[in-house]
Amino acid sequence: MRYNQLGRTGVFVSELCLGTMTFGGTGGIWQHIGDLQQNDAERLIGRAIDAGINFIDTADVYSSGVSEQITGQALRNLKVPRDSVVVATKVFGQTGDFANARGASRYHVMDGIKASLQRLQLDHVDLYQIHGFDPATPIEETLRALDTLVQQGHVRYIGVSNWAAWQIVKALGISERLGLARFDTLQAYYTIAGRDLERELVPMLKSEGLGLMVWSPLAGGLLSGKYGREQQGEAGSRRTTFDFPPVDRERAFDCVDVMRAIAEAKGVSVAQIALAWLLHQRAVMSVIVGAKRVEQLDDNIKATQVELGADDLAKLDEVSRLPSEYPGWMLERQGDPRRQQIGETRKGREGAG
């Protein structure tokens, strides 16, 4: 298990993060994603920690807070030292039936952290993330609330999930201008079959030093190897009960075909190749893996040992590469001469080496 910096901070997190969306199974969509109860969840958390995973991600909306409760109780039951694990949770989604029980307002953020800390049985969370963009709340209001939580010690670092690049950059500018805590991470959807964030988000992350946490790295199981043009998955499997996130299936199955050939040559699973491809992407800080069984988690963990050679990566890139769009193709065309000049300098040659 390798460890990467949490954005620009001095904290290091494992390249795999244990996701807890499968814990609880209470109501709505959550029952389709997983319904692990305390004992089974503890087995997963214990196995993850034994494998070197020191990063756990949850959210206040997962199973209406039950996921946080199970996670906190598991850390206590397993006697996990608090300083040995980085705990992340999120706020934004609806947590009650009244008008202000949602969003990224100061009202909801301040209430949200209190409720999450109580469920997790912690005095602070290491990473507090805004789970989505709130068109009703000024970004400055959200950042001031988060900065208050950092100053109070309830939150160590802050992050964001499912925002556009321009929204994040605007927030970073506000933080810099007002001297507020800044976002250190982005949690976003990214797979070999869904590389959309490479257009705007990845360049922004590299420029501004944010760490990328990847959610649904197997596209809701579609890239696990259990699905194909002639395979629809087992009855009751994730995609058959909750068809999310949206994926171009033909594109995905083209990727699966190439991954399957590489997996067979290496004697590993298709899922391991899909995860290994993400782990080979320089923008990725940590890949969130969720599981219903210890065997699934073990298979995911083995992806950290899969080495993809230049030929493997070239084949995977060819089958999954995004079609060129404006302004990308114009930026590439106009910037090539200048990049060539940079490459010819001593600094450029040293960087290439």
UniProtKB/TrEMBL annotation:
Q: InterPro entries in the record, alphabetically?
A: AKR_Detox_Biosynth, NAD(P)_OxRdtase_dom_sf, NADP_OxRdtase_dom
Family matches, as Pfam families: Aldo_ket_red (PF00248)
Sorted alphabetically, which CDD domains does this protein's record hold? AKR_PsAKR
Q: Where is this region: Disordered?
A: 327-353
The keyword Oxidoreductase is assigned to this record: yes
The region annotated as signal peptide is: none
Return one GO MF term: oxidoreductase activity
Q: Where is the composition biased (Basic and acidic residues)?
A: 333-353
Keywords on this record?
A: Oxidoreductase
Q: Where is the NADP-dependent oxidoreductase domain?
A: 15-320
A GO CC term assigned to this protein in UniProt: cytosol
Protein's UniProt name: Predicted oxidoreductase
